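quick q for whoever's on today - can somebody do inverse folding on this one?? i tried earlier but teh output was garbage lol. tokens:
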């Protein structure tokens, strides 16, 4: 069970479900908040309209006709209304309103209805004498008629509750300030029921709570099925790789889906890796077999000579034993260098003058069968391992000495961004069909095998590997003299000036 829920398919399904759940919860909260705000705004507008209708009636009444207790107020079930003065005394109340809170005045006792204030024309002081010279807020200069009442443009809103005919509910109250024609400022508190808002919010929330699990189950199930179908080729690749590992048969390949997605590319890359691995293993097996064969000959010859010498000291061929030992030592050195190259050993980055290197190496080959002609001057610098480059040059010269009829030439020149080391001879040359094969390990052509020269077929393979690890190439072609022409191309050292050929 633990393995099932730790699979990629289970993780993808759970992850997708979790993401969708978070998104739906966030969206649901946003929808509920938006719905609540919109319905609250609608209630505000209804309450404001009811309050202003009452305020307009108050402002339009004549000064001698302001019986607040007899105002025509809206039905309390729709819009409970209170009218108070600035001191909070109740002036008018909707019929049937039993309790109220949140409007600013909690009293619903109509018996405490306040009496109207004195009119503006009767004066504002404690004396009852007329003040014909005085003006107040409700009158106009030089006019006996009182001013028309005013309604404030601003509205204050608040949440509250009210009980009408024994039924309690939540309301949104709007408070509007109005001035009647007597100059008295009153506050009209009108409410709008929030029952519709609460019902809509509750219904929406319930629908979301009921639909969320169903939607999550659908998302999880669809993700599970889609992921299973998408990962089915991966399971095929895994099982085939397990079979290859168990059987050690590198010739087998994993199935490649007909699609062009990432899984198909994974399968192709896996098969390419298996192909390269099969080639590497085969090359390693052939290398070990060839190395064993090449080592067997000098070891057997050396052992035979030593056994003969031990039994008959006078017949011991010391020069032959030394030659076999040298050959064995050289072969062991070649095998060790190839092992290091196969392990990915990178050459050093020492600045080396290839022209000077050719002159130095040729000067030390005094025992060559054919003298080497040198056409190289100093000033052709490359970056790399001086020892490995000297080994390449030595292998090329050794190969030329084996096949040359009477001349061997080594030259260095500059071609664009490359420094070219060329070794040419006047031998039989290399057939065009064999020009790539001779760079394989332990490969010797028939004419080379007919010679008793001690070559193991590793020199050119080592030379090409070293060239490639220095960022260059090693190729063979035909020399002007009719023999073979080997050309080693290496990148010129950075900052090296242009030199002529």
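ok took a stab at it. sequence:
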């Amino acid at each position: 069970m633990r393995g099932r829920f730790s699979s990629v398919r289970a993780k993808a399904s759970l992850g997708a479900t979790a993401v969708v759940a978070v998104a739906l919860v966030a969206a649901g909260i946003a929808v509920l908040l938006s719905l609540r705000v919109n319905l609250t705004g609608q209630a505000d507008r209804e309450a404001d309209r009811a309050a202003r209708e009452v305020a307009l009636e108050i402002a339009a009444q004549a000064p001698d006709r302001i019986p607040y207790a007899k105002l025509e107020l809206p039905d309390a079930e729709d819009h409970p209304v209170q009218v108070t003065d600035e001191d909070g005394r109740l002036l008018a109340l909707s019929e049937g309103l039993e309790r109220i809170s949140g409007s600013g005045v909690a009293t619903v006792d109509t018996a405490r209805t306040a009496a109207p204030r004195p009119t503006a024309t009767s004066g504002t002081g404690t004396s009852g004498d007329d003040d014909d010279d005085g003006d107040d807020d409700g009158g106009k200069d030089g006019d006996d008629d009182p001013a028309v009442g005013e309604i404030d443009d601003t509205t204050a809103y608040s949440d509250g509750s009210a009980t009408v005919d024994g039924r309690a509910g939540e309301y949104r109250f709007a408070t509007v300030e109005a001035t009647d024609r007597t100059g008295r400022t009153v506050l009209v508190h009108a409410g709008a029921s929030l029952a519709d808002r609460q019902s809509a919010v509750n219904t929406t929330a319930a629908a979301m709570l009921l639909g969320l699990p169903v939607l999550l189950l659908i998302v999880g199930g669809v993700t599970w099925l889609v992921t299973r179908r998408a990962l089915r080729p991966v399971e095929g690749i895994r099982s085939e790789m397990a079979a290859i590992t168990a059987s050690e048969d590198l010739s087998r390949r994993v199935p490649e889906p007909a699609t062009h997605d990432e899984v198909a590319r994974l399968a192709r890359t896996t098969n390419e890796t298996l192909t390269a691995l099969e080639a590497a293993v085969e090359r390693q097996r052939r290398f070990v077999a060839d190395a064993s064969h090449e080592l067997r000959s000098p070891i057997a010859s050396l052992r035979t000579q030593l056994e003969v010498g031990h039994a008959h000291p006078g017949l011991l061929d010391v020069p032959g034993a030394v030659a076999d030992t040298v050959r064995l030592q050289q072969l062991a050195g070649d095998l060790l260098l190839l092992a290091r190259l196969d392990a990915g050993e990178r050459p050093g980055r020492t600045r080396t003058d290839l022209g000077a290197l050719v002159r130095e190496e040729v000067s030390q080959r005094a025992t060559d069968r054919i003298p080497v002609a040198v056409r190289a001057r100093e000033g052709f610098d490359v970056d790399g391992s001086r020892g490995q480059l000297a080994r390449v040059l030595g292998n090329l010269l050794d190969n030329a000495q084996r096949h040359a009829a009477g001349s061997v030439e080594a030259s260095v020149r500059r071609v664009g961004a490359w420094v070219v080391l060329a070794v040419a001879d006047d031998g039989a040359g290399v057939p065009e069909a064999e020009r790539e094969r001779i760079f394989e390990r332990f490969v010797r052509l028939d004419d080379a095998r007919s010679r008793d020269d001690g070559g193991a077929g590793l020199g050119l393979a080592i030379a090409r590997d070293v060239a490639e690890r220095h960022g260059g190439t090693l190729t063979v072609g035909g020399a002007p003299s009719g023999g073979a022409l080997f050309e080693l191309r290496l990148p010129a050292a950075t900052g090296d000036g242009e030199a002529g050929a």
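fwiw The radius of gyration is 54 Å. also The longest strand covers residues 150-164. so keep that in mind when u check it
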